[in-house]
Specification:
By secondary structure, the protein is of the alpha/beta class. The protein folds into two domains: about 160 residues, Aspartate Aminotransferase, domain 1 (Alpha-Beta Complex), CATH 3.90.1150.10; about 200 residues, Aspartate Aminotransferase, domain 2, CATH 3.40.640.10. It is built from eleven helices and 13 strands. The strands form three sheets. A seven-stranded mixed β-sheet has the order 4-10-9-8-7-5-6, with helices on both faces. A four-stranded mixed β-sheet has the order 1-2-3-13. Helix 2 runs antiparallel to helix 8 and helix 10 packs across helix 11. The longest helix is centred in the C-terminal third of the chain and has 22 residues. Bound molecules: 4'-deoxy-4'-aminopyridoxal-5'-phosphate (PMP). The site of 4'-deoxy-4'-aminopyridoxal-5'-phosphate has 13 residues, from helix 4. 4'-deoxy-4'-aminopyridoxal-5'-phosphate binds next to helix 4.
Amino acid sequence: SLINSKDKLLRERAASVIPGGMWGHMATRYLGPAYPQFFERADGCRVWDVDGREYIDLMCSWGPNILGHHHQAVEAAAERQRRLGDAMNGPGEVLVELAELLVKTVAHADWAMLQKNGTDATTACVTIARAGTGRRKVLVARGSYHGAVPWCTPSLAGVTAEDRAHLIHFDYNDIASLEAAVEQAGDDLAAVVVTAFRHDIARDQELPTAGFARRARELTTAADAALIVDDVRAGFRIDLAGSWEPLGVRPDLSAFSKAIANGYPLAAITGTDRFREAATKVYVTGSFWYGAVAMAAAIATINTLRDTDAIARMTQAGDRLRSGLDAAAKKHGLSLRQTGPVSMPMVLFDDDAEFKLANAFCSAALREGAYFHPRHNMFLSAAHTAKDIDLALQAADAGMAAAAQVA
Ligand code: PMP
């Protein structure tokens, strides 16, 4: 059915004018051959590919879609600002309003700055930490993703050893390895960078233990270094005050992006007064970092998350999906590992080192109208109703049948 499909024709055209046909994490060559590369439209929790096939979307644009596509309050705020102006010679009033809202909402925040992508935000946090401490060493967990520039990209193509010279690795949730890394940094420790929880690709998700989070705080405080929480993926999906707030651990600097403006391009960093002067000194900027439309969208997104039961609805949808997937797996004689917050589902099959079951599951579920990912954590939105989840579960039943065949 894909022969002569619009998606196939677009891929053929793309192959001659775009290196590899597509770059980065949205290249569907990493997924089964049935996955569409190109989409025509989206609404709520659904997406339509360029051949008109409709899917219940369990990826939510890889995070940005949190309230549903075309959310009324967000679109109204964006449209209002668009009529006024977007990228001008300076930001609009919405910048100050959004910074005030972030400072009020995020528990550790004394100030906020805005960027566009998650990588901008994580990189600015590292730069500010180095500027504020006058030191070089940055500790990152093995396997954690912080973005796609030389200091953190997972591909070493085009990266020099010098780009990584001052990184030291530890294992997430492993206090002894963190202590060893801090020791190795000695008096040159600028920052410890941690994701909100362990959400590395192709492995079970892990929440941070309270002991690990507290130790990360103690070690950075003792060294007068920065504790940076990379909340780009999880931010505003778990706790509006910051993903480590339920653990009682406050970072010095946090990076946000993805969900912050319900799909409009925006990132933010928040920080404490300890790093205000450093944040004043560093030169971080971009042509589009002052665009007012995304800021207006972010204000509406955060207000809606705060004033509605959106986070609770994502949890309900996640619980329903998790128990439904477990039941479907059991019915077909398969066993799953579902880990991490239910609203950010990670579904892995037991005895599936090569992801054969996962790929069979996903490809069959896709044909039945549900867009799952075989190896990456997924995302739910407040637009996923019980009915949508049940439709996804119907597709998942076909997926499990297909997985059982290759098991
Ligand atoms: N940090 C984390 C934890 C992420 O999940 C991502 C994006 N997947 C990034 C940083 C980088 O964000 P972006 O792709 O917007 O640059």
